[in-house]
Structure prediction request, 158 residues.
Amino acid sequence: MNAPVYQDGDRSTLFEEGLVFQDFIADLFMGSLGISITSYTSRKYQWNKGENRQGIEIKLDRRILETGNVSIEVAEKRNAAVGLWTPSGIMRPDNAWLYVQGNEKIVFVFSKKILQMLYSSRYKQFEWQPKSTIKTFLLPIKEAEKYALKIFRTKEIQ
Prediction:
């Protein structure tokens, strides 16, 4: 599959980093939970169905422990020059029911519905643009710990 070019990305390796993290989560879920993740690799299936057959959205968030927040994606643009935002992350209408976000040290597993409810009821007013092509809301780690279905930490991940 050809890697998409993120014109406004801060690194050319973003796409590959995301794929490596998806593989990391696939191994973690199989080893810890007995759940096999079958990723869709074609654009057709990713656009029409979702990231994988199991309905598990996976997002790499390298800075959780540094910032003290989980940055939950709600909208995106292909590039900064595009005017309209497209629902993404927890707001994308796809087959996802679980939302997995983290990095090699900490991984949060959320219900997508719970995150949508938190965003709509409490965090929409705190929506922000960490980059010109993405909108998120910041969920403090203490809140994330309270609402997560499961949390994996470094000692459990190794």
